[in-house]
C-alpha cells in the first residue's frame, strides 16, 4: 500500500520531469502553407504614412518618381471633365501631384480662383478639413523645375506659388492652375518681352500667335503638365461670376482620379 507521503513525492517527480521535457522540446517550424500566409499578410498590410518636411520631401519624391510613371488624370466638376497629362521633365512636381491624388487630397477642394481669359486655380477651399489634410501630408515647398523649357501655352498646367520672399520660385505643393490667356501679335509679344524681360524663341512666338497663352508667366512658375481634353470646360469655369478677389460666388468642387499611364 502506498502512503500519502510516497504519493506526493511521486507527483512532484512527475511534475519536474514534465517541466524538463517541455524545456528540451524543439519548436516545430511553421508549415510551408502557414509561412506563405504569413508573408501574404505582411505584404498586404498598409504601409505607414510619412509626414513630409523640408528635410525629407526631396528624397521621398526622388524615390517616388522612380516608382511611379507620369499619368493621365481626369479632373471632375459639375461643368464637365478635364483631362490632363503630366510632363516627365518635372519629376518632383509630377511625383507630388500623383502622391496628392492617391492621398485623395484634391477631392472636394475647389476651383477657388477664377480669372477670365487668364487662369482657373484649384486645390483649396474654406473648409477646416483641408487645413488638416495639408498638415497630415506635410509642410514643404517644391523647387522650380524646367522654367526655361515648359511654357504657359493655352492649356498649360502649372504650380501656384507665393511671390513674397521667394526668389527661388518654389512652388506651393497643394495648388495648381490651368492657363488660358489669349493670342498675341508679334508687336504685342515684343512689348511683353520688353516689359517682363523675356527672350521668346521663334517657336514660342509662333505658338503664342496661333495657340495663345500667358507668356508673361514664363520663367515664373513651373509648368508640369497640359490639358489634352476639356478646354471648353476650363473656358466655362473661367466665365463664372466672382467676388473682387476672384473667388467664385458659387463653389466649384472637384475630384481627381488617375485615368491611365502616359508619358510626355
Can you characterise this structure?
The chain has helices spanning 4-24, 32-44, 57-67, 91-102, 128-137, 186-196, 202-210, 231-238; strands at 71-77, 80-86, 110-115, 119-124, 156-159, 176-179, 223-229, 255-261. A hairpin with a 3-residue loop joins strand 3 and strand 4 (119-124). It is of the alpha+beta class and 264 residues long. The N and C termini lie far apart (96 Å). It is 36% helix and 18% strand. It folds into 2 domains: 4-44; 57-261, Cyclophilin-like (Cyclophilin). It has an 8-stranded antiparallel sheet with strand order 3-4-6-5-7-2-1-8. The protein contains 8 helices and 8 strands. The radius of gyration is 30 Å and the shape is globular.
Amino acid at each position: 500500500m502506498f502512503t500519502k507521503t510516497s504519493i506526493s513525492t511521486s507527483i512532484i517527480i512527475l511534475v519536474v520531469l514534465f517541466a524538463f521535457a517541455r524545456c528540451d522540446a524543439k519548436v516545430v517550424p511553421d508549415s510551408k502553407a502557414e509561412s506563405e500566409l504569413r508573408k501574404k499578410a505582411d505584404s498586404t498590410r498598409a504601409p505607414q504614412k510619412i509626414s513630409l518636411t523640408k528635410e525629407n520631401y526631396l528624397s521621398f519624391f526622388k524615390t517616388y518618381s522612380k516608382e511611379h510613371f507620369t499619368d493621365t488624370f481626369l479632373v471632375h466638376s459639375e461643368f464637365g471633365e478635364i483631362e490632363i497629362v503630366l510632363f516627365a521633365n518635372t519629376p518632383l512636381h509630377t511625383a507630388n501631384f500623383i502622391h496628392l491624388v492617391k492621398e485623395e487630397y484634391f477631392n472636394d477642394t475647389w476651383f477657388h480662383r477664377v480669372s477670365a481669359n487668364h487662369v482657373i486655380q484649384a486645390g483649396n477651399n474654406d473648409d477646416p478639413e483641408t487645413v488638416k489634410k495639408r498638415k497630415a501630408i506635410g509642410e514643404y515647398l517644391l523647387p522650380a523645375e524646367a522654367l526655361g523649357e515648359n511654357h504657359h501655352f493655352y492649356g498649360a498646367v502649372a504650380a501656384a506659388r507665393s511671390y513674397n520672399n521667394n526668389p527661388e520660385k518654389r512652388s506651393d505643393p497643394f495648388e495648381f492652375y490651368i492657363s488660358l490667356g489669349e493670342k498675341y501679335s508679334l508687336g504685342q509679344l515684343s512689348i511683353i518681352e520688353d516689359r517682363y524681360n523675356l527672350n521668346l524663341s521663334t517657336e514660342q512666338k509662333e505658338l503664342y500667335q496661333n495657340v495663345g497663352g500667358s507668356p508673361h508667366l514664363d520663367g515664373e512658375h513651373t509648368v508640369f503638365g497640359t490639358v489634352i481634353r476639356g478646354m471648353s470646360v476650363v473656358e466655362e469655369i473661367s466665365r463664372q461670376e466672382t467676388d473682387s478677389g476672384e473667388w467664385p460666388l458659387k463653389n466649384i468642387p472637384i475630384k481627381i482620379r488617375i485615368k491611365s499611364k502616359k508619358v510626355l
